[in-house]
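Reviewer has doubts. Consider these tokens.
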Amino acid sequence: METYQNTRQSHWDAVARKRDTWRGMGSWYHRRLIEIYQFLVSPNQRVLEIGCGTGSLLARLKPSRGVGIDFSADMIERAKLRHPELEYHQMDAHDLSGIDGPFDVIILSDTVNDLWDVQRALEQTKRLCTPHTRLILNFYNHLWQIPLTIAQTLNLAAPMLHQNWLTPEDVNNMLHLAGFESIRSSQEILWPLPLGGFANRYLVKLWPFHNLALSNFVIARPAPQPARAASVSVVIAARNEAGNIKSIFERVPTMGSGTEIVFVEGHSRDNTYEAIEGEMPLHPSTPSLLFRQPGIGKADAIRLGFEKSTGDILMILDADLTVPPEDLPRFYDAIVSGKGEFINGVRLVYPMEKEAMRTLNFIGNKLFSMAFSWLLGQPIKDTLCGTKVMWREDYDKISANRSYFGDFDPFGDFDLIFGAAKLNRRIVDLPIRYRERTYGTTNISRWKHGVLLLRMVAFAARRIKFI
């Protein structure tokens, strides 16, 4: 190993000196890498880059604390001169004992290709992680070995020593061995040369072109560990649901260290507000809050409920009780155990009661779930099930970055799903048995909201998939 490392240190020192006066054809590739990482990593996070080179990628991410390490002294010397506002250390990725964490994001960009022991290097990062830390790796596709070798021979690309040429399956297995869980993967950069915009943004996302991409990306998180008992807020948007209020109080279970119910009444034509107001003193052991919705739409109501709630975990329960409140502890267990970080209810697995969902709605939901699963890179079997569960700290980040997606989702489901995907959170589907309404009628318009769903697909494609 020592000979291997010394050879590579000398090699990358020479490359650093060469780049002082030489510009190859790799600038378009690195420019596109920066664009991808800027999408994946929000500003003002604590970021560690392993194998940082001269530090250009780390600097462009605008971290609140940015630390770069590289075993090439010449690379680190240039990084410190170009980006003095960040921390840079000459250090071997196989021993990170000299670095203090934690970090929100740890990046290995074209680094695992060059490591002696990838698993050991990944294990070194565990000490620097929190449960929400994201590990992001990109590495070359083996199909590009010959083109890259030709480019190096013609002095068009920086020379490389013998590479590991790992497959995504190899990397996922090493992540598993090192105590990480892969969340999603993608293929990026089809044409690392001028005029590659259309190919790199659109074609590379489509079959069969994605198989020809130059770079594989993998996003992972530390393997989940059970969390402490947490408090829960069950947020209920209630419009024309007076007949269900008594059942809600009787059926919502106590979870974690304490459970509160937060009602947001939305301009009902019946006496929903009065029904809630009347039930609250009859259930003194159930902490509850009641607010009148100032705006319109379920999304507006849920946001107000989240803002006023106090729990560590935020749950949405539809007031129509088509998702039984008795199922909520399963959502609690899934998020507290770490199995998922955003738990999404699914109505499309178990058979439904006869009138629970109309046939065209069922077919539409199936088609949209396929579209959104492809767009988000994680399986989403049911986008419009009202029951969704997340940590408050994640919702706060989604809310702070809401401007990225805009504000035209009347349901609120897509705002949360898109936000969780943008944060690279582990989304887990939890099947439930969907029940028939026993009071009132649905507030969903099949055709009007179907058109809106199509707009959501197009919007997600622009803002998440084809970046």
